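Could you show me some protein's one-letter sequence and the numbers that encode its backbone in two labelled lines?

___
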Amino acid sequence: MKAHLVKHVKVEDDDGNLIEIKIWQLQAPSPDKPHGYKYSMAYIVEGMRIIGYDNSEGKGDHKHYGGKEVAYTFRSIDRLLEDFSRDIERFIRGDKP
């Protein structure tokens, strides 16, 4: 299924860690993407993914944090970005998942 890239951000934070966000809008919703978006977000520290949000084929919406993979409830793109940013802030503060 074709998709249109609506957002791609790749930045390095003040500590040299990488933040990458990719969001595509699908031509039509699908069974595993009923909201009509495909996305991949990652926070990379010293070459390792510490936090990730994605909805890879067949897995549905989920996130990776602290070595765990858990389901994620998609509400909106804005909320997705807020939740991802909040998890990065939690990690930087040293909060446990």
Q: What stands out?
A: The first strand starts at residue 3 and ends at 12. The mean pLDDT is 93. The chain has one domain: 3-93.
